[in-house]
Amino acid sequence: xxxxxxxxxxxxxxxxxxxxxxxxxxxxxxxxxxxxxxxxxxxxxxxxxxxxxxxxxxxxxxxxxxxxxxxxxxxxxxxxxxxxxxxxxxxxxxxxxxxxxxxxxxxxxxxxxxxxxxxxxxxxxxxxxxxxxxxxxxxxxxxxxxxxxxxxxxxxxxxxxxxxxxxxxxxxxxxxxxxxxxxxxxxxxxxxxxxxxxxxxxxxxxxxxxxxxxxxxxxxxxxxxxxxxxxxxxxxxxxxxxxxxxxxxxxxxxxxxxxxxxxxxxxxxxxxxxxxxxx
Amino acid sequence: xxxxxxxxxxxxxxxxxxxxxxxxxxxxxxxxxxxxxxxxxxxxxxxxxxxxxxxxxxxxxxxxxxxxxxxxxxxxxxxxxxxxxxxxxxxxxxxxxxxxxxxxxxxxxxxxxxxxxxxxxxxxxxxxxxxxxxxxxxxxxxxxxxxxxxxxxxxxxxxxxxxxxxxxxxxxxxxxxxxxxxxxxxxxxxxxxxxxxxxxxxxxxxxxxxxxxxxxxxxxxxxxxxxxxxxxxxxxxxxxxxxxxxxxxxxxxxxxxxxxxxxxxxxxxxxxxxx
Lengths: 279, 275
Ligand SMILES: Nc1ncnc2c1ncn2[C@@H]1O[C@H](COP(=O)(O)OP(=O)(O)O)[C@@H](O)[C@H]1O
Ligand SMILES: [Mg+2]
Known about the structure:
heterodimer; A: alpha/beta; Rossmann fold; 2 domains; 4-stranded antiparallel beta sheet; globular; B: mainly alpha; two-stranded antiparallel ribbon; 68% helix; flat; binds adenosine-5'-diphosphate; binds magnesium ion
């Protein structure tokens, strides 16, 4: 779905490479989380995936299209929809349904078809009730769901989210994560989620960690997070549950090092305690 | 304190005035004002008053709200009336002695002051009726439609409409932010309430600087988000809500022309008929 070959990128006004030699292949229908500390190049990488930025060297392909192909830039942006961090700074319209209509309007879709897509997308993210509301009256989580709907209205195959939950409260984060996961599972949309919440990354199929513009670790959440020291040396955390398992292991408790969900931790602890507390 | 700002003064409703095609409503409002400046006869003004009253009644908007719209213009009204009253030369009706001079009030002055005041009053009422019955988004749509024919002359009608929509969208966001900054600065001991104008203007700097910095950042991010959703300025954009002229709009034009006819008769023909 997304493929990069020796991708290199430097912002025009600086000589430093923000991304160096990135080789990445993201499968159709997968859910990939991208981790990395601030300034590691995550947002820059995301912008490579829908031709907002073009490679300085190497290639990026989206849906088989070379992103440097100027004539197909709208095909690329249509198929790889992007949601940004700040919900307030990505909305153009004063009414929710107009916001969702914005992208298909830009694509020159027929008015009737736009109407159908808007209704459908608002339903998908559970915001039908707010179709006529002003975005400024919504909560952060609701705003981000509208932002997701406004991208879905292009019928994209890929959804790229650049720290969509960074400015939300725990409730809003849950709403957004639930929506994204559902889109991935039920509609088969390929998801690339940039985040700095490890428990969100733990829900992905694959975790890619970048540091200083290079991919340093790539694997399933289980594989990646089991290397607790490595993750910590990159200035990142592991999910709380993994952290707990790690500390318990250090104390000599026999709990698997690749514990990433609360249920797993529960089961492991139960079996350590000899099943006594099971009932 | 800024949170309660509403743009324009739109009052939702379902009257024929609310339902009219926005571009037509703008044109008719302008025509209403133009017609106003052709009238001189008291009889014509009386008819104009009746027509305006009928419009207000039809709009379902209370007279109180309309009168409220006049209040901020009160000083302009008084100023215009006084200027016309004192500055018009003509047949002196009476004079006010003032030290060595005297100010002459002419008959023409009185007539002109009265006419101008009445015209301005109607003008304000007409413009209020437009903004009270048309939402900012509909106004934007109307302006876009009106500018569209000028597109060959390189008037960027879509872009202007887009700018207006974004401005409307960001007013609450920026108002909220201003509120926050003011509170933050007040908490640090800034004082916006006392001192002369210069001091107060200076006190505004710590509000405006962060506000502008953030507005530019927002603009930058918004541009990226628009680009990411395939915005490219115009031409082949379609609209989900295509506004169209309806029967109601044809009727509105007919009624307007009819009223113009009545006014023309009262203004010109009746004069001929009377001695
Ligand atoms: N528009 C820009 N111009 C120049 N340098 C930039 C620009 N945007 C980001 N950078 C630099 O690129 C690097 C990576 O930034 P970014 O991709 O935003 O990282 P992340 O999203 O991981 O925090 C940072 O060092 C940052 O300073
Ligand atoms: Mg970033």
